[in-house]
Design brief:
It contains two helices and 37 strands. The protein starts with a helix and ends with a strand. By secondary structure, the protein is mainly beta.
């Protein structure tokens, strides 16, 4: 017969075995015992013991059998729902994307989006690993949130469809564009991100109904033979794009300026109407209430942009102010430029205006500049090709004074202060 001491010891061993098999290890102490499985929420946790792409992905920590997180981004995407929304929650780590990027082709809906984000406050890096793409978002109703997305050759994020949100991320180190919005994309929100170290565009927009707000965009890459980058570029038939309350600084952009409303693109990339004629490069593009600082070049260009606006912006330490240029198929029409503040360095011009440009309003601006000058130029022509169109600038140009501009009906109430 067992003594009381032996019974106590055996009971202790029995309880220990239960705990070992049922309760997560010390490495998983953040796992909640009342955790409820959601069949539409999937976890990836490369640093968790027991993480495997053979798991079901339904748990943030490994709990036994197939119950645990995926190991990396190469898990079988067939495990994700084909219809309706789902969540991919990434735990702390540096995740290298598959060769073609992390490709999300599934669609969410109005009730439940596809969400890709970090776990709680953990730091997550999506590493493009010098592949062409980081994230390829081909589906609709997708949200990308609180991630560090970096190191892609072409685009860190490419958006193809509609109702996509890019919120609160760090997006950097692309050798072309950090965010690319294709012409098929619409109803896009880009908000509260830090976007930096890009060789061409911080945000390149070909789509429509795009809202870009409260982002910090800065510091383009310095590549051999390249000195032209932009915080924001909307072209190729883009329409109804708002760039508002962003901060753009430390950009080299001698030709087009920190932002370009409209632009120039190859015929292959410009939208066409049913009669096969081209859309204007930009329509209803608005740049409002932004800060532009330390631009090695100008503030903004309007190129073949219809009913576009640059208003209430604070522009400091730029080499020139604004350009208004015709494009391959349309002139700039109904432009609005009002209530901006400019500090223009050295002998830079306030505005270069090609003769066919028409304004709805160009007034109530404030300038601090060494010499008050505007340049009036003849209309540009273009050599158009599928991949790119080349601007041929007119030799017909002349410098005019404030009085000459006022005679044309512009800047009647603007303030000019000599530096």
């Amino acid at each position: 017969m067992l003594s009381k001491l032996e019974l106590v010891i055996m009971f202790g061993v029995f309880i220990s075995l239960i705990l070992v098999n049922k309760i997560p290890s010390l490495n998983n102490m953040d796992y909640e015992s009342d955790f409820e499985v959601n069949e539409n929420t999937f976890y990836v946790a490369q640093n968790q013991n027991g993480a495997s792409n053979n798991n079901n992905g339904l748990f943030p920590v490994y709990t036994g059998d197939k119950n645990g997180p995926f190991k990396d981004l190469n898990f079988n995407k067939d495990k994700l729902p084909l219809k309706g929304g789902f969540r991919i929650i990434l735990r702390e780590g540096n995740y290298k994307v598959p060769d073609n990027g992390l490709h999300i082709f599934q669609n969410g809906d109005n009730k439940e989006r596809v969400v890709i984000k970090n776990y709680e406050s953990e730091k997550v890096v999506i590493d493009g690993n010098d592949n062409d793409f980081g994230l390829k978002l081909d589906g609709s109703f997708i949200t990308v949130q609180n991630l560090d997305i970096r190191n892609s050759k072409v685009y860190n994020i490419q958006v193809k469809s509609r109702n996509v949100e890019i919120l609160g991320n760090k997006i950097h180190d692309s050798y072309e564009d950090n965010i690319k919005i294709l012409s098929t994309a619409e109803d896009i929100v880009i908000r509260d991100n830090e976007i930096f170290d890009f060789a061409k565009e911080g945000i390149d927009v070909f789509g429509s109904n795009v809202e870009i707000t409260n982002n910090y965009i800065h510091s383009n890459k310095k590549l051999l033979g390249s000195s032209e980058s932009h915080c924001f570029f909307a072209k190729g038939g883009s329409k109804n794009v708002v760039f508002e309350k962003n901060k753009c600084e430390n950009i080299e952009s001698s030709w087009g300026g920190a932002v370009i409303l409209g632009g120039v693109s190859g015929t292959k990339y410009t939208k066409k109407y049913m009669d096969n004629s081209f859309y204007p490069q930009g329509m209803e593009i608005k740049v409002l209430d932004n800060e532009f600082t330390n631009i090695k070049g100008g503030a903004a260009s309007f190129i073949e942009c219809i009913s576009c606006e640059f208003s209430r912006n604070n522009v400091r330490n730029v080499e020139w102010g604004l350009k208004f240029s015709s494009g391959p198929n349309y002139d700039v029409k109904e432009a609005i430029v009002t209530n901006n503040e400019f500090i223009i360095n050295n002998d830079g011009f306030i505005a270069l205006i090609e003769k066919p440009t028409s304004f709805k309003q160009f007034d109530y601006n404030r300038y601090e500049i060494n010499k008050f000058k505007y340049i009036i130029r003849g209309k540009s022509i273009y050599n158009e090709h599928e991949e790119e169109s080349i601007q041929v600038i007119s030799n017909d140009q002349q410098e005019i004074s404030i009085e000459g501009v006022k005679e044309q009906g512009f800047e009647q109430n603007s303030i000019f202060q000599s530096t």
